[in-house]
């Protein structure tokens, strides 16, 4: 097979570009510790009332000043409905769904989890600035999807 000189140049260029882009994605994923977001712990969505930690949804302050916030999503809201944490403290959100797939997305932060029935998703975040943060559902979950939101109060 005969390849024209320009064809060879473009093939080499295209192949090299592909290798470079894939390397950048691969190396940065390892370097920054990207992982699939949670989903490793399984729960029975029918039986959350009897499954720790979802038998006690809410804000739990730990001895070291950090928080564990246990959240259950269901059409079309979140339990607990009120969340208050201190600014500067580490907050770990553990979320699951009782019915269909929702999301737990805190506006202006990196917290953006899919909330799948049967799976537990977890994300840790530190709110540096006090204020009110909006949490919305980003997965279409039914007729009330656009009403599905709540807030986090971050206090001094
Ligand atoms: Cu829940 Cu959309």
Instruction: Name the CATH superfamily assignment of the largest domain.
Output: Cupredoxins -  blue copper proteins
H and E order: HEEEEEEEEEEE
Q: Hetero groups bound?
A: dinuclear copper ion
Based on secondary structure, the structural category is: alpha+beta
Instruction: Tell me the distance between the termini.
Output: 72 Å
Sheet of most strands: 6 strands, mixed
Q: Specify the CATH architecture of the largest domain.
A: Sandwich
Radius of gyration: 21 Å
Count the domains.
2
Number of strands: 11
Tell me the name of the CATH class of the largest domain: Mainly Beta
The CATH topology annotation of the largest domain reads as Immunoglobulin-like
- Low-confidence segments, given as residue ranges, are none
Please estimate the helix content: 10-25%
User: Average pLDDT, to the nearest integer?
Assistant: 92
Q: How large a portion of the residues is in β-strands, by DSSP E?
A: 35-45%
Separate helix tally: 1
GO cellular component, one term: membrane
Keywords: Copper, Metal-binding
Organism: Salimicrobium flavidum
Subcellular location: Cell envelope
Question: What does this molecule look like?
Answer:
The chain is α+β, with helices and mostly antiparallel strands and 156 residues long. The protein folds into two domains: 1-34; 41-155, Cupredoxins -  blue copper proteins (Immunoglobulin-like), CATH 2.60.40. 17% of the residues lie in helices and 38% in strands. It has one helix at 5-31, and strands at 41-42, 58-61, 67-74, 77-79, 82-86, 90-97, 102-106, 112-115, 119-126, 131-136, 149-155. The strands form two sheets. Strands 1, 2, 3, 4, 6 and 9 form a six-stranded mixed β-sheet that branches. Strands 5-11-10-7-8 form a five-stranded mixed β-sheet, with no helix packed on it. A hairpin with a 2-residue loop joins β3 (67-74) and β4 (77-79). The radius of gyration is 21 Å and the shape is elongated. The chain starts with a helix and ends with a strand. The structure holds dinuclear copper ion. Dinuclear copper ion is lined by residues 76, 102, 137, 139-141, 145, 148.
């Amino acid at each position: 097979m005969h390849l024209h000189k320009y064809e060879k140049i473009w093939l080499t260029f295209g192949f090299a570009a592909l290798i470079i882009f894939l390397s950048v994605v691969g190396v940065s994923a390892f370097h920054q510790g990207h992982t699939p977001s949670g989903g490793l712990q399984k729960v029975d969505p029918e039986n959350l009332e009897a499954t720790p930690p979802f038998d006690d949804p809410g804000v739990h302050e730990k001895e070291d000043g950090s928080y564990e916030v246990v959240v259950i999503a269901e059409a079309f809201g979140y339990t607990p409905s009120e969340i208050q944490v201190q600014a500067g403290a580490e907050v770990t959100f553990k979320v699951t769904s009782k019915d269909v797939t929702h999301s737990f997305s805190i506006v202006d932060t990196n917290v953006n989890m899919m909330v799948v029935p049967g799976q537990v998703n977890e994300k840790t975040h530190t709110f540096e600035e006090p204020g009110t943060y909006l949490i919305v559902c980003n997965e279409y979950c039914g007729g009330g999807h656009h009403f599905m939101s709540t807030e986090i109060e971050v206090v001094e």
